[in-house]
Amino acid sequence: MRVEKILHTADLHLGAKNVKLPLIKQKQLLQEHIDSLSTLFQEDSDVMLVCGDLFHTNFVTQKIKKAFFKEVEKFGRPVLYINGNHDEKMEFEFAPSNFIVLDEKNNVFRTENVDFWSACEEYQNFDYSKKNVLLLHGEISNKSDYDFVDLKKYVTKPFDYIALGHEHSFWKGTFQKSLICYSGALFANGFDECGEKGFVLVDVKDEVKAEFKPLPQRQFKIVEFALTPGQENLSNELKKVIEENKNNLLRLVFTGYYAEGEKPDFASIIRGANAFYVEFVDKTKVEIDIERYKNEPLSFKAEFIRLVEEAELGEEEKNKILTIGIEALKGDDLSL
Q1: Angle 175-119-71 from CA coordinates, rounded to 5°
Q2: Any idea what the Cα angle at residue 191 is, between residues 186 and 195, rounded to 5°?
């Protein structure tokens, strides 16, 4: 067979669950991930590469395995796989014949114009008239990482494209004469994986080219709101953001200050929102009215303010000490 387009993916982590989500949302996301596989396999490509962490654990359900391998079988063309740190001991009892595992023993898959290789200690029989593609799973920049992969071991080899897995964000670069890509995770599983997720489509007809292709799906998004004392229309602003992200998983992060006695009820604002999932993180602080406490009779707060104001400190430092001190005396969380 002749290869012109290669679909490079990795880190599907099928079976992974975000345990912080309600169980019903976990199940819905997992089913949506399984349903999205058909979209992936409909992409116009001659070969698919899965560079590790296909499944999240070795104990993934048979339902999930069968769903994936059903799509592989329908695809009909070679699907080349190397193991990752999550699925290195996985058994593929439902795999069709076009699912091909590359490893130390079976380290090359040859086609008419492209040869595909896995990591191994000793390479033999390179065909320099063809394109050569290497599949790796690991961290290439941090030597202290347990899954570090040293690209220097491979630069003397004629690899035109190095397909990487392990990092969950897309990245493209060059190393010596090789074009290198992390495809990133195919699906996001938490708020540490915001932004688009997808795969890489590699064109090897002439010069090797690689393009990131987003896979349509829900995204994890974080939106920050910086409050100011007496702020108006907060509820309307929040409702607008929630509506814009009603099909995503949204985290609202509240920062800034509110006036004493005027703390917004964030929970009630988002309660009943017409959205797939919304949560919030409250990092706000109460704005301390120094003048109010300064004039309190027989007050520890007033005495504390007097001592700080008489200290030989800069205004910025005084304000910070006053804020933290009054918060402590009131029993509030400290603005550290």
Answers
A1: 100
A2: 50
| Residues 138, 153 contacting (CB under 8 angstroms) | no
Whether the CB-CB separation of 318 and 308 falls below 8 Å is answered with: yes
Give 3-state DSSP helix, strand, coil % of the chain, rounded to 5. Answer: 25, 25, 50
Of the candidates 192, 167, 218, the residue with the CA atom closest to the CA atom of residue 36: 218
pLDDT single digits (tens) 194-227: 999 999 999 999 899 999 999 999 999 999 999 8
Q: Which tokens is 317 given?
A: 């430092």
Look up residue 261 and give its two tokens: 């006695």
Set out the domains of the chain in order of their start, with CATH numbers: 5-214 (3.60.21.10), 220-330 (no CATH)
Q: Express each pLDDT in 293-314 by its tens digit.
A: 777 777 787 888 888 878 888 8
- Nearest CA to 294 out of 278, 309, 279, 284 is that of 309
Sheet with 131-137, edge to edge strand ranges? 108-110, 114-118, 131-137, 161-165, 178-182, 171-175
